Amino acid sequence: MKTTYEQLIGELKNKVYKPVYFLWGEEAYYIDLVSSYIAENVLTEAEQSFNQTVLYGKDSEVGQVSDLARRFPMMSSHQVVILKEAQDMKGFGDLLAYVNQPQPSTLLVINYKYKKPDKRQKIFKALESKAVWMESKKLYDNEIPGWIAGYASNHNYRIEPKASALLAEFLGSDLSKIANEMEKLTMAIGKKGETITPDLVEKHIGYSKDFNQYELQDALGKRDVLKAKRIINYFAENPKKYPIPLTIISLYFFFSKLLLFHYTRDKSKMNLAATLKVGPYFVKNYESAARRYSAAKVVEIISLLRIYDMRSKGYEGNTTPENELTRELVFKILHA
After folding, report:
1. Are residues 219 and 330 in the same domain?
2. CA dihedral for 138, 139, 141, 145, sign (positive or negative)
3. I want to staple 48 with a disulfide (CB 3.0 to 4.6 A). Which of 52, 95, 132, 331 is the partner?
């Protein structure tokens, strides 16, 4: 029985319980959220002492899991058995017998992270058809700013698009890490309903709102030579924090999307946002850059990025220091 995180949490809040939950996917965040909700809310604190067990796949055997799951609850209507890191359990397929005939009063919660189930195996066919089956997909990088905005809204805060972009760039795509930092940020701000700005991100997260990959893209898109030089000098002085491979990847994605912008016929704001996979707020950046870089120039810049990527890896005996390579690259882009 396939379900989404929202549907599953809705059922759990309404105390609709099922015998087996199979939570899997590359994104651990939602798997952990569901498991934690079940662990904290299905049983009272007193009931948990006798009726809640947490096991780990690497340290558990199938027989142990099945035996625990088949027990009857003590002084409670349900018991909870949470199997974490199930992808590491030897003989996982032998759980088939239990999945086919589960104990109705047990909630067996199986966490299967970072590994795709092989649906040719009987155990996964059974789980997909008989258990609550929730896939937790990893978000694409371009989806992270929107997720951050949604998180802020759900916690009664607003956030400026630029602040979302800065957090996404700084924190990456690990939702657990992002949620943790957002919790710290909102606690530091305190008052509900406040707007999270780039200044607040810099103050509480420690990430510069002026010197980052997003601002470098913006400077290059506008051909703002002075701003680009200030940023690239800052990068050159902080090579561990801003290594050239990171800069090249960031600029490659920016100019690849700019090339796509040039070849998109329907240049309405919403269509461009969907095509480029960016928030509508950021479409203006590509409109501005497209006026300054023709499609042919963008192709040249993408080729240039590939050359500097090879040079940064020592291709053909290159020994130019990273900081000088970064300055050279930005200079050539600005004068392309």
Report:
1. yes
2. negative
3. 52
* Integer CA distances (angstroms), 159 to 174, 195, 199, 274, 314, in order: 19, 5, 11, 21, 42
What CA dihedral angle connects 27, 32, 35 and 36, to 10 degrees? -160
**DSSP per position, 71-93:** SPPSSSS-EEEEEESGGG-TTGG
Contacts of 77 (CB under 8 A, 6+ apart): 105
Say yes or no: 156 and 79 in one domain.
Answer: no
| Count of domains observed in the chain | 3
Q: d(Cα 167, Cα 99) in Å, to the nearest integer?
A: 42
- Domain residues for the domain of 184 are 141-205
**What CATH number did the domain enclosing 31 receive?**
3.40.50.300
Q: What pLDDT, in 10s, does the model give residues 132-190?
A: 999 999 998 889 999 999 999 999 999 999 999 999 988 888 999 999 999 999 999 88
Q: Is the dihedral of CA 140, 143, 149, 155 positive or negative?
A: negative
283 and 242 within one domain? yes
Chain position carrying tokens 């951050």? 148
Count of Cβ atoms closer than 10 Å to residue 87 Cβ: 17
Please tell me whether residues 196 and 219 are part of one structural domain.
no
In contact, 6 and 37? CB cutoff 8 Å:
no
pTM reported for the whole predicted model = 0.79
Q: Give the number of other Cβ atoms within 10 Å of residue 41's Cβ.
A: 12
Query: Does residue 117 share a domain with residue 46?
Result: yes
Q: How far is CA 232 from the centre of its chain?
A: 27
List, for residues 197-238, the tens digit of each pLDDT value. 999 999 888 878 889 999 999 999 999 999 999 999 999 888
